[in-house]
Write a structure and sequence with these properties.
The complex is a heterodimer of chains A (about 110) and B (about 220). Chain A is an alpha+beta fold and about 110 residues long. Chain A has helices at about 10-15, 45-55; strands at about 1-5, 5-10, 20, 25-30, 30-35, 40, 45, 60, 65-70, 85-90, 95, 105-110. In chain A, a hairpin with a 2-residue loop joins β6 (about 40) and β7 (about 45). The radius of gyration of chain B is 19 Å and the shape is globular.
């Protein structure tokens, strides 16, 4: 995900990343990652420290003042066989939630113009 | 069937979409979200998902040889122009041709799954699906972050600023072929030569065997 600041309130961090800071750590669904000693200042989270603890890489473009927070790394791309929550748009801009296909077998074909 | 165009520039995919007249959900993924979530390394790739939303095959190469060229507008058939690759590309092209499955085995496997569901021998267990998914060491994760920056800048109209990030994504993860293929597709000739090598030269450098994984049914 693209962020334009490395200092966020916990609420903003959750909104942007999906991870909620709780006493037991950063949690999403049933997964919690310990966050003892997470760097904060004035109640705002140091996103670089959060990323390091999560195993999420952080790429930076200084000219545009933006960072990309990459996926958690160190294991495999799939941590479960459950299709992740994905909402994409069709060619007319209408949203489509892949979860709406439950109940049918789905052959998902990824293609490109190149 | 659901198709997803992994195209940062949706308008580049639109002509193909319109020519196909799909009656199934035909979606777009300009951010290459599915690449990051599912880990396939090239397109076209097929993923099987069962009725409960569980992935039963995480990604198989789904290349099909192109059909014969349609007649040009006006009805006149275009003369067939044979592509003669330069010598340095011939071995790569031969290797790619040998990897692509032309037997129809994959179509048969899909039909078998459609008919037999979880009883199909081609439907993998959750453990097998996870095991088959791509390892993501730190450099592969960083490549994903660099690519996300690149496609974001490209979509903002800052394409030339995206180039260093496209290059870094490919450098960190040279086997993720969607990164380089996308980067070269959106490169503006007005920028001059911003990429050192063409696509086939890059494939030769990394290894043609990495471009499409042989079908593992």
């Amino acid at each position: 995900m693209i962020v334009d600041t490395l200092s966020m309130s916990p609420a903003e961090l959750q909104r942007q990343t999906g991870w909620e800071l709780k006493p037991e750590g950063a949690c999403r669904g049933e997964v919690c990652v310990p966050m003892q000693g997470l760097a904060t200042e004035g109640g705002r989270v140091d996103v670089a420290d959060f990323a390091r603890r999560m195993g999420m890489p952080l790429a930076h473009d200084a000219a545009h003042g933006i960072w990309a927070l990459g996926p958690r790394s160190g294991g495999r791309v799939l941590e479960s066989a459950e299709l992740p929550d994905v909402v994409l748009s069709d060619f007319d801009g209408n949203s489509f939630d892949l979860a709406s296909l439950r109940g049918r077998k789905v052959l998902l074909l990824a293609w490109a113009s190149y | 069937m659901v198709t997803v165009a992994i195209d940062t520039d949706v308008e580049a995919a639109r002509p193909f979409h319109e020519a196909a007249h799909p009656t199934h959900p035909a979606l777009t993924d300009p951010g290459h979200t599915l690449v990051e979530l599912l880990g396939f390394t090239n397109v076209p790739t097929a993923v099987w998902i069962d009725e409960s939303g569980t992935i039963v095959r995480p990604g198989d190469q789904a290349y099909r040889a192109p059909a014969a060229s349609p007649p040009a507008a006006g009805g006149a058939a275009q003369p067939q122009q044979q592509y003669v690759p330069p010598p340095e590309h011939r071995e790569v092209l031969q290797t790619l041709a040998s990897i692509i499955d032309r037997s129809g085995r994959y179509d048969d496997a899909i039909r078998d799954w459609a008919a037999h569901g979880a009883q199909s021998r081609y439907a993998l267990s959750p453990e097998q699906v996870i095991e088959r998914s791509r390892p993501r060491p730190p450099e592969v994760g960083m490549a994903a972050a660099e690519f996300e920056l690149a496609q974001h800048l490209q979509r903002l109209g800052a394409g030339l600023d995206a180039v260093p990030h496209f290059k870094e994504a490919h450098r960190l993860d040279p086997r993720e072929w969607t990164y380089l293929r996308q980067a070269l597709a959106v490169a503006d000739p007005a920028w001059g030569k911003v990429y050192e090598r063409d696509m086939l030269s890059e494939v030769a450098a990394v290894g043609a065997g990495t471009f499409y994984a042989p079908l593992d049914l």
